[in-house]
């Protein structure tokens, strides 16, 4: 499936979100996607070590922090950012509809 999508839309990066399947990271790299999205159970440094270079990483803030006071959430984000892992980005996979206000607060934090 990945090869068909890449052939039809080569300019669009493909992301595979592991969600609970951190034990399968090495196999997921073989799918041919451009980015692996890690859930909060996989440490970013461990993910980079296991996947090596040549594939992007997204993750991995625990979405439970969206229910925390804003200082706790921003502290967790800063902790993840401090890893400074090449070809990686901070993300938190959750329902934006349920967390609209918190998402707005996060955007203000980054702006």
UniProtKB/TrEMBL annotation:
Gene3D superfamilies: 3.20.20.210. Coiled coil: none annotated. One of its GO terms (biological process) is porphyrin-containing compound biosynthetic process. GO terms for molecular function: uroporphyrinogen decarboxylase activity. Residues 2-81 form the Uroporphyrinogen decarboxylase (URO-D) domain. Signal peptide: none annotated. It comes from the Eukaryota. InterPro entries: UROD/MetE-like_sf, Uroporphyrinogen_deCOase. SUPFAM superfamilies: UROD/MetE-like. Pfam families: URO-D (PF01208). Transmembrane segments: none annotated. This is Uroporphyrinogen decarboxylase (URO-D) domain-containing protein. It comes from Amborella trichopoda. The lineage of its organism: Eukaryota, Viridiplantae, Streptophyta, Embryophyta, Tracheophyta.
